[in-house]
Amino acid sequence: xxxxxxxxxxxxxxxxxxxxxxxxxxxxxxxxxxxxxxxxxxxxxxxxxxxxxxxxxxxxxxxxxxxxxxxxxxxxxxxxxxxxxxxxxxxxxxxxxxxxxxxxxxxxxxxxxxxxxxxxxxxxxxxxxxxxxxxxxxxxxxxxxxxxxxxxxxxxxxxxxxxxxxxxxxxxxxxxxxxxxxxxxxxxxxxxxxxxxxxxxxxxxxxxxxxxxxxxxxxxxxxxxxxxxxxxxxxxxxxxxxxxxxxxxxxxxxxxxxxxxxxxxxxxxxxxxxxxxxxxxxxxxxxxxxxxxxxxxxxxxxxxxxxxxxxxxxxxxxxxxxxxxxxxxxxxxxxx
Amino acid sequence: xxxxxxxxxxxxxxxxxxxxxxxxxxxxxxxxxxxxxxxxxxxxxxxxxxxxxxxxxxxxxxxxxxxxxxxxxxxxxxxxxxxxxxxxxxxxxxxxxxxxxxxxxxxxxxxxxxxxxxxxxxxxxxxxxxxxxxxxxxxxxxxxxxxxxxxxxxxxxxxxxxxxxxxxxxxxxxxxxxxxxxx
Lengths: 336, 183
What we know:
The complex is a heterodimer of chains A (336) and B (183). By secondary structure, chain A is an alpha+beta fold. Among the domains of chain A are: 5-55, 2-Layer Sandwich (Uridine Diphospho-n-acetylenolpyruvylglucosamine Reductase, domain 2), CATH 3.30.43; 232-331, Enolase-like, domain 1 (2-Layer Sandwich). Chain A is 29% helix and 19% strand. Chain A has a five-stranded antiparallel beta sheet. A three-stranded parallel beta sheet of chain A has the order 1-3-2, with no helix packed on it. Chain A has a three-stranded antiparallel beta sheet with strand order 9-10-11, sandwiched between helices. In chain B, helix 2 (108-115) packs across helix 5 (161-178). Chain B has helices at residues 45-52, 108-115, 125-138, 144-150, 161-178, and strands at residues 24-30, 33-39, 71-74, 77-80, 93-95. In chain B, strands 2-1-5-3-4 form a five-stranded mixed beta sheet, with helices on both faces. In chain B, 30% of the residues lie in helices and 14% in strands. Chain B folds into two domains: 24-99, Ubiquitin-like (UB roll); 108-177, [2Fe-2S]-binding domain (DNA polymerase, domain 1). Chain B is α+β, with helices and mostly antiparallel strands. The model of chain B is unreliable at 1-13 (pLDDT under 50). The termini of chain B are far apart. The interface between A and B is large, with 46 and 45 residues.
């Protein structure tokens, strides 16, 4: 690892002073917050990320999980992934989120990794990690090794000619379906970011993962009251039964009137640069009976613009079947 | 090879390399003993244990959090010691494989691993056992499949998995019996 300096401030204000006056987004910053460290230190060992200074926020008082007015739940940015997944309120009211968190990483990593850090983890694209190859995300303007290389795990939706990497998180897929709100604080005070606006598509600036500014800190993630506890699931399809990133994952949540769908939420992981949601596919389901045929139609709408790369066209059919199965499980409908 | 010029390296562009930052003092309680070390900020907890304290029971496998050989307990919770910095563990209580036995009496999991022949080369074993201690403390495993899932962060290239599951299962069952049959 390259040399860096280290500081452990004892308040949020002191932590913010530690990253003050940095331009751009957090992805580009030379001074980084560290909390769990599971992704950042790994990337520093690989020489992919080279911060000058680490500001350790892991002991700040942002690790609680608390009720909020209106029936929601506030997940502290520094609550550990394991503590969040096993929290009795999360399990009872947001089982899809608990399941998604436990589908990711290993028990050791979930004990270290924080909720805020989960949002900021970076792609596992091989070319991003391999400093001997071009990568527009790591070194803008050098090109994309994955476009003409090995791209089995890459995007089928929302990709660009500059980057076909996918966001690796499971937790974020469930948070997208739940329409969580990211609470951040910075020099201009607090602000909230709807989950759909937190991560971004690559376009021609794939080196920027999120809209979080370099001088801002995530303090919490708010879950709305509506948790879809009765009819929801998280389905993850991967190469191993455990401890592997998703080829395709689906967070599916329904509100039902008898067998009629009132509201549907669908978010996909492993297919795009951010958790993928599509209002048209969700609208396709509203007011219709919960049936395999309607689930198939919704999956076709969601995947209408999907484009396979040389090694991952299989993901399109895989995603279609995963969506149908996840919706069927959420609705309690028999499926093949 | 020229220096990369991406945003991640912008802090290094157009300037001489900064002098190495100062070493830092870290005080930890390791297996019941208080230790103060002087380490560089980028020293992992794993390297602090192995290279600064000569406690080589904790193994370095992949050094990227993928194999679990470096698993230790920090404040009672299992973590990958390769993915945390020694300076981040200031004031924490660390338990390694060297700290599990009481004198000559092995920890029940150590005994069970011997009894079930739950290893071949033994390199992953300290991590497997520390991870299993953490898993039993967490209390979420009920079935053999749960054990497999919750131990998936510990790889065994010799493939001793069936015996590892059997060893953990035995200790889990005997603990459940001691707790009056409660799961």
